[in-house]
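B., you asked whether I could sanity-check this one before it goes into the benchmark set. Here's the sequence:
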Amino acid sequence: MSSVLSVSQLNKYVAFKLKSDVKLKGICVKGEISNFSVNYRSGHAYFTVKDEQSCIKAVMFSNSVSRLKFMPENGMGVLVIGNVEVYEAGGVYQIIVTDITPLGSGLLHTQIELVKQKLIKQGVFEESSKKTIPLFPRRIAVVSSMTGAALQDILNIIQRRFPICTVGIYHTQVQGEQAALSIKNALEQADNGGFDTIILARGGGSLEDLMPFNTEITAVAVHECKTPIISAVGHETDTTLADYAADLRAPTPSAAAELATPDRGELVSAIEKLKLSLDNAIISKLERLGSTLDRSTNELALCSPQRVLEKNEQRVITLSERLKTLFDGIIRNNEFALEKYAGSLNALSPFNVLTRGYSILSLEDRVVRSASELNENDTVTIRFAGSSATAVISNLTRKEEQI
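And here's what the prediction gave me:
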């Protein structure tokens, strides 16, 4: 009968056996990663490596994690390298992983990520270097395969949306080892063709099929184009380095054609709206100007020389009438005064005495008041009431008698 072992003794024994087996040191295990996580305190990575039928726990310590050139993801096919050991406290055997190498698409993802990081450092993806896509292009270049459905989709949409635009087609390989260089050459030709916009397009495919658009050659060629570029590679979920380098990414080739051109119907509608707005604005402006003109005309009429003359003429007429009235009053008053003074003067006139039988003696138009003013033989005029007579002085009595 075998000896009785405790759980700890059993786990230690199994651990010893695994450690002493050289075939389990530096072992390579192929599988798919799942439940990948990194402890934020220790920096250790914990995950499971599995295939269709089985799985094994794996641990990668922080010093090994820091040397990885990529970050493993769940579902990625990998080749892990490490030693098989037993975690004695839990009685679980696991692989202590020292290195991870991606396989298949995982390897391609790693390669793409390395190129991406390099291009980021070179500034290929900088937003500040991206150009604006023209709203109304006259000429569009399409860099794509002549035999691909993507090209026909683009041409049909451009013809429908903006038929006045000219399209230039530059054929390129979109798959295979020489595709990246072919894309570069086609882009350079299109960039020198005097186009307003370039569309770089291909239909969907696997990651391997899209690899020419994930190369440094293609991304740099897109970045160096002076003409604005719209990239439409693969389906909506596909994103390539060419998409990052382009000035604008479209989810599909058809979407790229729509982004590159305005819609004719929308333009006509927009023009009609603008025309209506312009007509309303002109009418409103004319109405405002008409009102301003009417006000200005009225103000000008009020301030015009003719208006001033009319006002002054009316004022002159009014003042003239007032002056005439004033003068008439003054004249009437003076006439009344004159009549009064004339009456008073007439009452005192010596001629009124003549009517009572008196006469006036004058010598040479001078009234004689005293005989002393006369000499003999003077011819004098005797004035009576209503008549006069001439007489010659023949006898003078110098001494006037007292009456």
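One thing to flag: The longest helix spans residues 305-348. Otherwise nothing jumped out at me.
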